[in-house]
Amino acid sequence: MRLSICTISFRHHLMSIDEMAAWARSAGFQGIELWGVHARNLASGPERNGAWLADHGLTVPMISDYLPLDADARLLRQRTIELCNLARTWKASKIRTFAGGTASGLTSAGERRLIADRLRDICDVTASYGIHLLAETHPNTLADEAASTLRLIEEVDHPFFAINFDALHVWEAGDDPVAMRERMGSAIRHYHLKNVRQRKHLTVFEPANVYAPGGDRNGMVPLFEGALDYSHFLSDLAEDPDAEASLEWFGNNCLETLRSDLIEVQRVIARQRRDTPNRHSFETGRLDF
C-alpha cells in the first residue's frame, strides 16, 4: 500500500512544498495529496510539478477539491478542465470532490438526478485526460451512508467515476468499513485515514471547524488511539498491494503525528503479511521465502 500525506494538514502552517517534500520522503511516505487551493497557488511556480516531485521519490496520487455541481454547467466544466490541467501538471491520476452538499435523506429525487447527471458529465471531461473523478464518502452528501453511496455508483455509471473511501466517515454513518470495502470493491480508488477519540467528538471534522485556524481540535487523535479499530481495517486492506491511501490529519503536531502513524500502519501491514500464507505459492505448489 502506498501512503501519502495531505497538504491540507499544513493549511495553517508556514511550510513550503519544498519542505513538505523533503520531510515526506525522509519520513517514508510515497506521495503528497494536494489540496485544490494549494495546487492552484503552486501553478505560479511552474518549476514545481510532477517531474520535480518525482526527483524526490514522490508522486501526487490525487488533488482534492470541491467542484460546484450545482453551478452553471459551463462553469462546472471550466472548473473541471482547470482541475484536470493541474492534475496533469502534477501527474496525478485522480481528483476528488463531494457529491453535493445535502444529506442523502434530505435530497429530492430531482436534485439527486441532477447531481448524478453532473458527475457523469464531468467524468466525460476527466476521462479525456485519463483522470478518475472520485466522490468522497462524507456526511451531508449523496455518499453519506452505504446504500446511498452504492446507489450513486450505479446512477453515475461511468468507468472514470470512483470513490474516495474515508473510513471514519463510513463508520460515522453506522456502516462497517471492512464490509463496505468488500461491497464497493474496485469502485474504491483511494482511502482517507483518520480517527476520533469518541463518537461524540465527530463534530470536530465539520468543515466550519476544520478550516478555522482557531477551531476545536479536541477529539482528533492518532490513527490507533481512537474509536475506529484501524488494526482490523488495515489488516484487511494490507492484502491489496495496489491500494493508495492518505493520512488525513487535521490536528496539531502534524509532523510528529504523521510520522508515528506511518510507522504504526507499516507495522500492521508487515504483521499481516507475515501472518498470512502466500496463497499464490500454495496454489502453484511453490514456497516463496
TrEMBL record:
InterPro entries found in the cross-reference section: IolE/XylAMocC-like (IPR050312), Xyl_isomerase-like_sf (IPR036237), Xyl_isomerase-like_TIM-brl (IPR013022)
Residue ranges the record marks as coiled coil: none
Signal peptide: none
Keyword S-adenosyl-L-methionine in record: no
Domain Xylose isomerase-like TIM barrel: 22-253
GO molecular function, one term: isomerase activity
Keyword Transcription regulation belongs to the record: no
Alphabetized SUPFAM superfamilies for the sequence: Xylose isomerase-like
Keyword vocabulary terms for this entry: Isomerase
The protein's name: Sugar phosphate isomerase/epimerase family protein
